[in-house]
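Revision sheet: C-alpha cells.
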Amino acid sequence: MLLRKVGPILAALALMLAVSPAAAVQAQPLRIGITQIVEHPALDASRQGFIDRLAELGYEPGVDVIYDIQSAQGDLGTANTIAQKFAADRVDLVLAIATPTAQAVANVIKDIPILITAVTDPVAAELVESIERPGTNVTGTSDLTPVRMQLELLKRLVPSARRVGIIYNAGEVNSVVQVNLAKEAARDLGFSLVEATAANSSEVLQAAQSLQGRVDAIYVPTDNTVVSAIESVVLVAERARLPLIAGEELSVENGALATIGIDYYQLGRQTADIAYRVLQGEDPAEIPIEYLDEMSIVINLRAAERMGVEVPASIVEQAARVIE
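Predicted:
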C-alpha cells in the first residue's frame, strides 16, 4: 500500500525537477544596471521617475527587478569601470543617465539594450545613427532644453542686459551643443556671450567668480559639472547682484532666478515607458529617441530679490511654479 503511494509522489517529484530549472529562470527578477555621471537633483529625479514608472508597469523593485545603481562621481574612468562591470554581470538592461555615462556603456556594451536619458544630443554623442531610427542597441529620451527660449526669458527679466556669462564643462558634448545654440540665439537677441569653463565641480566657483564685473547676467545650461555645484554659482550671483538663469527647474529650487525647462522626473518616467516596450520585445534600434513636450516657466522670487531683479507681473502670471 505504501509503495502505491510512494510511486506517484516520486513521479511528481521527478516532473518538478525536470521543469524547475526553466521555471527558476523565469522566476528570477530582471537585473537593471543604472549608471549616472554624477549625483545632483536633476539626474537623481530622472532616475527616480524611471524606477517609479517601471513599478507602476509591474516591475516592483526587489521582487520583479533588481537595480544596481552606480554613480561615476564625475570621473570618466569610473564611468568606464561601471560599464565594464555591467557587461561582465550580463545585466538585462542598462539605464545610462547623462551623456558621458551613456557613451561609456555604449562603447563597451553592444548586445544588451541601453536606455538613455538626460542626453542632450544622442547623434552628436555618437550614440545613435539618427533620432528617428537609432540603429543601435541604444534608445531613450533627450533633455535638449529650449536654450533660445531661456535666453529670451532672460531678456524679458533683464531688458538692460547686454553681456551674458555662460558657465560649462567644455569636455561635455551635451554642454558644447547647448553653448553653440546659445551663441546663435545670443546673436539674434543682441547679447554677447562671455564663456567660463570648469573641468570639474571644484572649478565651478572660480569660473563663476571670473565673470564678476564682466557680465550683466549669468546663464547655466544643463551641464552636469556646473549643476552639481550650482550653489557656488548662486553664491556669486547673489553677492554680485547678477541675475542667474538656469537650464532646468531644480537649479531654480536651489537658488537660480528662473528657467523655462523640463521636468526631469517626468523625463525619467517617459524613459521607463520606452524601457517597457524594449522589455516586451521591441528592438531599441527601431524606437525613436523622444523629447519631453511640456515646457514651463519656473520663477524664484526670493532669488529675484537677492539678485536685484523685479520680476514683471506678466511673467509671474505665466509661470507654472512660483517659489516665494
